[in-house]
Amino acid sequence: MDLSQLDVITRVAGATLLLALGALLARDPRTRRLAAYFAPMALCLAGFLAGNTPEPALRLAGPLSHASALIAGYAAVFLWWFCLASFDPTFRPRGGALAAGLAWLVLASADRGLLGPALESKGLSWALIALGLGMIGSLCWRLVRDRAGDLVDERRRARILVVVLLAGQLGADFLVDLVMGLDWGPQGFTIVQNAALLAFAAWLGLRLLPVPAPAPAALPGAQPVHGEEARLTERLRVLVEVEKVHLEPDLTFADFVRRMGAPERTVRRLINHRLGHDHFRAFLNACRVVEARRLLADPARAGDKLIAIALDSGFASLASFNRAFQAVEGRPPSAFRIAPGVEERPAVF
Q1: Where are the beta strands (DSSP E) in 44-161?
Q2: Which residues form a coiled coil (predicted)?
Q3: d(Cα 165, Cα 161) in Å, to the nearest integer?
Q4: Handedness of CA 224, 227, 232, 237 (dihedral sign)
Q5: Residue 327 pLDDT > 80, yes or no?
């Protein structure tokens, strides 16, 4: 097998695997949210693979070549969003993530002549490299920052793997562009790039494709507990309902574990398996929303502004309060305030 054959095989296999995985994720209700981020990423990476070869005879021709080159330029932002969504079920492109993503889409479009010939090949690729390095840094920082509170063991371990593999690969590509120039790309180097994408797609498939659901079990609250688990469950109840530790806006998972008086892994499994929360932040937000509902239903607090309710419920800002309330209740806190007759739910126990 010569290099040209290996070139074609890795690119076709990588693109096929990515597109097939996107279709499989979209078919399963459990993974449709991720599929919404994965599908555009897979399409863009397939476009990148279609043209990532120094041999003109091995590339697509005509309009397909131009289309693949265009969508390949958008791959980085969709890859960034997909990685964030994979580790944060509440992630939505907004704020800085949305602004940086839109900036990338505009710069990539201009760099490829979509916004007119005057902006094409005017050095915008270097701006994209700088922005891309910033996105990699942001992704690594968020994955590492939120790792301690991740209650799902497999996902918690995958955070470091993604940081090492993805940041290493993309960082190396950007550094090669900086040192060797944007037009440097011998066949051996591009084959390694394409093979790395193929391996990345295979790893995603193994990690993301849903496994058959286990047999239905009793609800967590209905399962009897005994011995040490019963003691820890009671301690957890006291911390939330009596000591109200969730009202501390700066409470960390390490602080909570210390107050529980149990090993970190045991506390993580208790909150994840018995209460159903996949991240410590989600657990805190659920507790804080319960407190906010109580305050919103209190006639004595009817005249208080929402920011006061948010701070007294343990939230650090009104924006985080609104996001968490919408995620838990399916409606904003203002709607709950004008409908005080809604039945009160118990806390997390």
Answers
A1: none
A2: none
A3: 6
A4: positive
A5: yes
* Closest to 34 (Cα-Cα) out of 163, 185, 207, 158: 207
User: For residue 192, what are its two tokens?
Assistant: 């390694």
pLDDT of residue 77 exceeding 90: yes
Average pLDDT, the chain: 82
Give DSSP secondary structure letters for 272-306.
Answer: IIIH--SBHHHHHHHHHHHHHHHHHT-GGGTTS-H
Q: How many helices (H) and strands (E) does the chain have?
A: 16, 0
pLDDT digits (tens, 9 = 90+) for 126-138: 888 889 888 888 8
Please provide the DSSP assignment of 209-231 as one string.
SPPPPPPP---GGGS---HHHHH
What the chain holds in terms of domains, given with CATH numbers, is: 3-208 (1.20.1070), 226-337 (1.10.10.60)
At 281 the pLDDT is 92
Q: Which amino acid is at 222?
A: A
Tokens 């409908």 appear where?
339
